[in-house]
Structures are given as C-alpha cells and as structure tokens.
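Supplementary Text 2. Reproducibility record for the structural model of the 477-residue chain.

All settings were left at their defaults, and a single model was retained for analysis rather than an ensemble. We include the record here because the model underlies the residue-level annotations in Supplementary Table 4.
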Amino acid sequence: MPNQAAFFDRLAASVADLPIPLAHALTAGNGFTHDGLYFLAYCLPLALPVALAAWLFRWLSDVDGPIPKAVTDRLFLWPVVFTAVSIPSFPVMTQDIWFSALWGEEIVRGQNPYYVPFTPEQAAAFPFDEVPAMMTYGPLWAVVSAGVMALSGGNVWVTGLLFKLLLAGAWIGGLAIIRHIGRTHDEATAAAGLVAFGWLPIGHIYSAGEAHNDMAMVVLMMLWLMRLSAGDRAGPLALAASAACKYTSAALVSVDLLYRLGKSRNMDFRGRLTAYLLRGIPAAAFFLAVLFLFYRSPAFFDAVRGMSGWQWLQPADIVRVAERLLGIDMAPLRWLVRGAFAGFALWTLAALYRRPTAENAWKAATAVMAAVVFGLSTHLWPWFMLWPLALAALVPSWWFSRWIFGVAALAPFAVVPFWRYEDGFDPFYTKTLTALPLYAGATLFMVWMLDRKDRAAVAAWAASLPGRLRIARAHRS
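Retained model, structure tokens:
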C-alpha cells in the first residue's frame, strides 16, 4: 500500500526528533508484522469490551427489581467516552473514509462520481490504495461528502476529522434515540438496549474510528422509528433520508406501510392507501430530488450491482462448508437458508398488520433488516451489523435480538482471516469457513444471554430430549 506507507513515513519523519520511540512504531518494520502479535493487538482490545458487554447484558437480564435511572445514564455515558477515544484512530482494516473523500472531491470539481471514477493521481493525495471506483453510496451521502470536502479544502487531517466527528455524532444520536424509545417501556429496556448497541466495539470503532457512513443511515432510520407512532410526515421524511444515504433501509417502507394500514382499519382500504400515499409525498419528493442531482442513466447503479459478486460470512456459507466436506452441491439448501430470513420477516410483518403496536413494529423492522443483511446481501462486513443491531436494541429481551447481538459481537473477529490473508490463500478458509464459528458462536451467545426463566425452560427441554428420543425410537420399532 504505497500511498498509506508514504503517509506514515511522513508522519514518522515529523515525530522523529521527539524523545519517545513513536517513529519506529509508525514504520513498516515494526513488530506487528508478526502474525501472533498482529492477532493479539487486534483481537485482545476487541475481546475485552465484548466480554464486558455480554456480562452486562446477562446481568441486566437477571436483575430483580427496577433499574435506577442513574444506571441507564451511566450506561449511556461510557459509550460516548469510548467514541471520543476512538476519534484519533487511523482506519486500519478498511479505507472507506477515503472513498467518501475522493467522491466528494469529484463533486466539488464538477464531476459526477456515479459515472466517473476517481483517478490514481487523486487517490495519491490520501493514505489510500484502492483501485479507482465509482460511487456506491446513496446520493444524500454524496452531498454530505461534497460538503465535507468543500470545508476541508482537501486537507487529509481536516477531512478525516470532519467525517469522524459527523459519524461519531450520528452514533451518539442513535444511542440517545435508543435510550429515549427504551424509556417509553421501562428503564430496564433502555439499559439493555444501550448495552446491546453502545457497549459492543463495532459501534464506536466503525463510526468514530473507521468512519463508515452506515451510522448516517442508521440514525435517520432510528428517527423514523421514533416518529412512527405520531403518524406525521416527519417519519417518512427521515426514512427517505436514510435510504438516500445507503439504499438498504428502503426495505423498511414495508414496516411503515403495514403499521399505518393496521392502525387505520376503521377506514376502507382505498381510503387508507390514499391517506398513506399523501403522507409520503414529501418523503418521495425529497428522495427523488436528491437522486436526480446525480442520476443521468441506469448506469448510475452499476457500481452497486458490481458488489453483488462478493461472497463471504453469510449464514448460507455454513452450507458451503458442508458442500466442501461432503463433495456435493446443496444449492437448494443455501437458498432455503437465505429464504428463511425473508420468511421470518414476512411473519413479523403479518403480526404487525394484525396487531400494530410499537413493539411489533420494532420486531418487524429488526427482522426486515436482518433479511437484508443475511438473505439479500451476498456478503457481510462487520459494520453491516449496525443496521439490525440498532433496531434489535429496542427489543433486547427478544430471542432474535439476542442472536443479532451475538453476531455483532463476533463479526469483527470472523473477518480477520480475510483481512490478514486475502492474497495467496484459499478463499474457502478466509471467507467461507469462518461463517461456521461466527453463527454457531452467536447461537451459543443467544442461549447464554437468556434470562433465568428462559434458561430454565431451555435446560428443562434439553434434559427431556433423551427421553423423547427414546420414545420416538420405540414408536418406530
């Protein structure tokens, strides 16, 4: 990575005269080129907060009596501190922040990044070593990126700081919304939601640390949910803005539609649908206005379509592991695994329509975004887990939310072999096999984090299983 190496060489030279051994740590010849030290340096700082978050979550599940408001406020404060500490960090594993910077710089120069890729010469101004690419993010994020680059004047340090502050603010805003919505139920729900979303390292690392734009989408998605019960135009407008940052949250229109239709059953269907469409006109107008700032032809989506060939860390990859071991093709089973998430989402949407409560809306939104992440998407980056995790944090006692918590806790570890050994190794071992411990571990996490009552029920079921199997064998014989 010559551009990144050059950046650190300049940084090392600028501190070479300081009376600390910092310059050596910034060069390519430091000890972290050793595999053992690399994994230790990456995994140990992740493992400690993950273990603490899991313990806190289980402790909150087992607490007898109400949770004091002061506890919830402390659980909110510490993630904010973690975020502030993460802001000075350099994006080590991915360089998405510089994609946003380069695409924003193109817009400032009068180019359309959805049709014209940045050049190697433009990339050389940043610690960035990816091949030229066209923009994959939504048009609202393109506008934001252009604004950041106009303010920074192309300065690497100012650019990085502005993106990080913007996304750190979005993440803290998401935390505040989770606390606010949780408190409409009780303090225990707010506290558990803050732990689920705020105490796992993927939040502050991938927002303030590496500056992925996912939190811009997520905070607007949470604003939509906060306004959902009000039935005003602000909710759909927030959802449209979310989808204009990153298209995936557009799937939540299904939740919004069924919630509103279920709430207005006293009207005839035509009247309900007309009222819904009128309510959504400002949101649709906003989305289209932002889209057509850049849209010129269907090639606008070519860069997004290009990512559909990526394949790693999906639940369906567990089937691929079995295929490799058994030497047979099990494509129908892979599709069944993907379809199971869509089927579960449809089941929660049906439950929402029958009983349009806020809690059912949160569950349906969680299931829909999980279907996007685990069923529709062909690959899983750890920061994708922010999409369903923020929603799952609103219903932390739900078993599916706890499974999502487990996946979000373990995903940053599962992707390490791919990042470390992307070149020169069989992709089966770096991209596919790691799905097995990821999802098996998440399932164990889910069971371990059940409350006392649910754990007792699972233990009783497991204890009775051998007897049931003997009865089944007797019937067969």
